[in-house]
Amino acid sequence: MINIPKGTKDVLPQDSYKWQFVESTAREIAGLFQLKEIRTPTFEHTELFQRGVGDTTDIVTKEMYTFKDKGDRSITLKPEGTAGAVRAFIENGLANGVLPAKMYYITPAFRYERPQAGRLREFHQFGVEIFGAKGAQTDAEAVVLADTLLKKLGLNVKLYINSIGCPTCRASYNKALKEYFAAHLGELCYDCKNRYEKNPLRLLDCKEENCKKINANAPSILDYLCDECKTHFDEFKACLSLAGVDYEINPRIVRGLDYYTRSVFEFVSTSIGAQGTVCGGGRYDGLIQGLGGNPMPAVGFGAGIERLLMVMEQSGVAIPEPQKPTVYIAGMDAVCRKKAFELAIALRKNGVLVEIDHMERSVKAQFKYADKLGAKYVAVIGGNELENGVMNVKNMSDGTSEPVPFCVATEYFKKEDITKKFVQVIEERKYRSKDAKLFLDCKELEKMKRNFKSVADFNIWAERKYKIKKASIENRVRCAKYIDENGRTILPHKGDMDFTYAQLVEILNKLKGCDNLIFDLCKKDIIRPDMSKNEIIDVCRLYM
Ligand SMILES: [Zn+2]
Ligand SMILES: [Zn+2]
Question: Which-ligand-closest: CA of 203?
């Protein structure tokens, strides 16, 4: 037995709806903001991430899945989504197209980390990239998009923002940082000593307790912003206020990746027992040029899907469960099961959610199984039912059952509210229940549904209909029976019937073949002279 690699996870069929919910919500919100999806390869040349993520970052120095392929090229499984999107943006000439280019991705990403709750070696990211716009309004739009998504997912979050300036103002800030940390160099962790030399800004990002303590008193970047960066940050804040998104400034946020400039932000869950960052991003105006493109501003964010799901679960967010079957059709024996199969196909064609037996279970076991599936109705077909062309439908919520002809199954399951109401009204008016079913199948019902908005309206109609029916009986009495040349009884009819008995018999023979049916139905006043050809065919089908 071969086990799953460490740090990876199976998403099983009973859980995948949670993923689908997060992914479809992300797609929906991205669409709302007019972003289109980009899909890039799972692996890229290692150099892309060295340059695009930054070779002093933990991701690049410690966590990448890098290997030589058979052509001796250094290949890396993507550790995040932005670098690949930027590469594709440059390589495909999108930079010369219509700007801004607004896109999102949902991608697996790979980091060789110590596996822990909410952190896997293969994880999934939803990310947003907006290329080509330099104004702070675009930064705010990215934040509002993230905010909309997180709220739609049911999360309580707090937004922290910061500006980490541009290379100009960061030079003086780095100097100040180095001066500050110089006094504490001995107390810093091994990594931070490295960072001190290579990228002092990232000292603020250290997760070590001791380093965090030292960081608390470090100078704030916000005191070192140049005029342009200051204006940009003010504008960013103003746009967020305009959008009604609350924020708090946190000068310690620098983000873990090297390519950020100016605006950076993080959303932190505020639900009890589920704290932690769920989404982070910012502006990275230098990245596209850094990866070989023409200088072009960019802003974006990413959110780990596993992390979102974990926080949603811890916060008790109710994720909508997948649709359960409307009806489970149970067959008593092999022949009935075939009918169930046939009906299921027809119902599914009409968009009804159906399940049937595939395990040759007994009817009792099928009921149990249907209940487990959460089916709203269980329809049983036995020998009797099969003969009468009906199934016995049990409403699983109130335990009531009634026979439903096969031919109105779709209408019954799709429009249950309307039809049930009308069935009730018809029955109250002492129509026979078979007649009630008959109405369900009539074209008349379609008219009814269109024209009658209330039961009262329907009552008026039914009254009139009933009189017509009586009149037609009287009319019938006046009609003589006709015997045709073969000695068969001819249907009494008015001139508005546009087909002959012989034609109808032919049609019926094609359907199933029963010569006396029409006459029987006429005698029972079920087929009436005021009915149309289609109605009569439908009625005959029902009674076959
Ligand atoms: Zn600046
Ligand atoms: Zn440290």
Answer: 2
CA distances to 74, 414, 497 from 301, rounded to whole Å, are 27, 43, 70
Tokens of 374: 């959460």
Using the mean position of ligand 1's atoms as its centre, give its distance from the Cα of residue 79 in Å.
29
Q: Which ligand is nearest to the CA of 286?
A: 1
Percent helix, strand and coil across the chain, each rounded to 5?
50, 15, 35
Residue type, 450: R
Going from the Cα of 170 to the center of ligand 1, the distance in angstroms, rounded, reads 7
Q: Quote the ligand 2 centre to 400 CA distance (angstroms).
A: 68
Interval 41-52: pLDDT, tens: 999 999 999 998
**How many A from CA of 360 to the centre of ligand 2?**
64
d(CA 488, CA 501): 10
Same fold, 16-166+226-314 and 323-414: no
Q: Is 76 helix (H, G, I), strand (E, B) or coil?
A: strand
CATH superfamily for domain 16-166+226-314: Bira Bifunctional Protein; Domain 2 (3.30.930.10)
The 10s digit of each residue's pLDDT in 481-530 is 333 344 444 444 433 333 444 555 555 444 444 445 666 666 666 776 66
What is the Rg, in whole angstroms, of the alpha carbon atoms belonging to the chain?
Answer: 35
CB 461 within 8 A of CB 444: no
- For the chain, give me the number of helices (H) and strands (E)? 22, 18
Q: Which amino acid is at 84?
A: G
Residue-wise pLDDT tens digits, 413-432: 886 544 454 454 444 443 33
- What average pLDDT does the segment 262-291 reach? 90
Give me the residue spans of the domains in the chain. 16-166+226-314, 171-217, 323-414, 440-544
Rounded average pLDDT over 22-37: 98
459 CA to middle of ligand 1, Å? 77
**CA 232 to ligand 1 centroid distance, Å:** 9
Distance between CA atoms of residues 267 and 278, nearest Å: 6
User: What ligand has the least distance to the C-alpha of 187?
Assistant: 2
Round to whole Å and give the CA distance between 375 and 354: 9
Name which of 126-130, 197-201, 236-240 the model is least confident about: 197-201
Q: Which ligand is nearest to the Cα of residue 215, counting in written order?
A: 2
Output the pTM of the full model. Answer: 0.75
> Per-residue DSSP letters for 321-383?
PPPPPSEEEEESSHHHHHHHHHHHHHHHHTT--EEE-SS---HHHHHHHHHHHT-SEEEEE-H
Which residues share a beta bridge with 302? 127, 280
Superfamily designation of domain 323-414: Anticodon-binding domain (3.40.50.800)
When the pLDDT of each residue in the chain is averaged and rounded to a whole number, the result is 82
